[in-house]
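Sharing a chain and its predicted structure for anyone who wants a worked example. Both blocks are below, sequence first, tokens second.
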Amino acid sequence: MNIRTKEQISRLLHSAAFRLGVLQAASFAFAALVLFAITWVSVSGYVTAQLRQEISDESSEMAAVPGSIRVASINKAVAHAQKGTFFYGLFSPRGDRIAGSLTKMPPSLGWTRLHELRHIDSKHSVPGHLLINSSRLEDGNILAVAHGTLQADQLNELLLQSFIWAGLAAVVLALAGGVLTARSYLSKVETITQAASNIVKGDLGTRIVITDRDDEFDRLARSLNRMLARLQSLMEGMRQVSNDIAHDLRTPLTHLRHKLEATTLQVTSVEGYRESCTTALADVDHVLATFAALLRIAQIENQKQQENFTDVDLSGLLGVLVGDFAPVFEDQGRSLHARVHPGAIVRGDAMLLTQMFANLVENALHHTPPHTPVFLSLLPMPGCVRAIVRDTGPGIPKHERERVLQRFVRLDSSRSTPGSGLGLALVTAVAQLHEITVSLGDGEPGLAVQIDFQRPA
């Protein structure tokens, strides 16, 4: 036996499935023992009761025989009795045998169980025991009627042997079933363990094989595969975020360094220093804003699902939002058109929902041509409340619409325009927290962001 086989046997013997099989075998054996005890007591009691009834009937019949012919009747009954069945004995008050096949008077009146060989003459004796009923007759003599218990004893022994063999077979089958179950479970657990080992080694693309049985292991495998897919997505996202952070921060930090270096070498006036410091502060503010947006997204993603949720008047919230943004649009010679249906109630965090819609409106304001309008609508739909933020700008190509919802994704690959690429990522984080459906569509022209809220139960 090699080391690998020993390890497999050791894992099998120490597995929970094997322990369950042993427990099942022990439980089955105990149940079989209880069943045998109940059956044995019931059968034995029934046979004994039947035997006693037969002996009582025979004793009553013999006692009713007149004393003058009782001896002859007993001898006749002894002669006609089948071997091993009824035995008779008539004894004097002193215990002397008068007639019958019983050689000794029972030690007491009533029911007695004695060994046959000691109380029956050799002519009528058979192995086994006697069940005897003794009674005193009117003339003072003792009448004893007995019956052999050999058949009843053999039946009890047969029952005992049958239950022993059946119990042993059941225990063996239960243990075998436990071993087979343990091997099956261990193979499935080994599959999951191997997948986990591959993941630890860095292979995040590993997935657990799912069978067609749809048992608890398949359900566990599906959950683990979803977790692994999410983990892989997060890790890839982290790598992308790291690259994007490096790129987004490198530009303002490089500009900041160049400006500070130029200020040190070239600027000589106080006004020049003030202008350089103002520009440097703007670059620093951009970096800080990027970090603040990242932290806010992380906080939203780590927030518990229903922690701060309340019933939110979405109609009133959007009405306030439109009022706050109206002056900003007017300052730029633009317009924000709102069509908000009153009384729309949703379940969520009012502050986060406000920030989500503010990001969408700001996104439409900053990435569309001057003097173009932005439209905001809120309408009740079957099964949901639908909000749409639509602009009349250049829109987003269809193949880019899913990607722009991720962190640091910007259609301006050169990153020469202002922004960090985190606005729509924050919208995505808030939507996932609230289980909101967000989809980007064609505004004909422009971009239409559709947001569907499930109605509160």
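Comments welcome. The longest strand covers residues 129-136.
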